[in-house]
């Protein structure tokens, strides 16, 4: 009787393992499908090595990615981990606030220069 119990437990464990692996495969296929769909020029991607870049061109299994500075590198499609924005702002987004800061600095310097100049 105990051998029947062991066989039932073994079969139950094998079925659970099969269902879990099947679900994992389905999730991996869905992730792969979303990544393939998102590989269009202009989208930000993250590689498995942690590199962030924008897609410039997709040619078969080769993806051309551009850095925020404009340098282009070639990557395998398999190296693309996800379609996602980088944790930092793009180079163009950093230019606008920087110019506002510089303008604010210039405005704050004007009264200092007026005070430093001797009055006649």
From TrEMBL:
<dbReference type="InterPro" id="IPR003849">
    <property type="entry name" value="Preprotein_translocase_YajC"/>
</dbReference>
<keyword id="KW-0811">Translocation</keyword>
<dbReference type="Pfam" id="PF02699">
    <property type="entry name" value="YajC"/>
</dbReference>
<dbReference type="GO" id="GO:0005886">
    <property type="term" value="C:plasma membrane"/>
</dbReference>
<keyword id="KW-0813">Transport</keyword>
<comment type="similarity">
    <text>Belongs to the YajC family.</text>
</comment>
<keyword id="KW-1133">Transmembrane helix</keyword>
<feature type="region of interest" description="Disordered">
    <location>
        <begin position="86"/>
        <end position="120"/>
    </location>
</feature>
<feature type="transmembrane region" description="Helical">
    <location>
        <begin position="6"/>
        <end position="24"/>
    </location>
</feature>
<feature type="compositionally biased region" description="Acidic residues">
    <location>
        <begin position="98"/>
        <end position="120"/>
    </location>
</feature>
<dbReference type="GO" id="GO:0015031">
    <property type="term" value="P:protein transport"/>
</dbReference>
<protein>
    <submittedName>
        <fullName>Preprotein translocase subunit YajC</fullName>
    </submittedName>
</protein>
<keyword id="KW-1003">Cell membrane</keyword>
<keyword id="KW-0472">Membrane</keyword>
<keyword id="KW-0653">Protein transport</keyword>
<keyword id="KW-0812">Transmembrane</keyword>
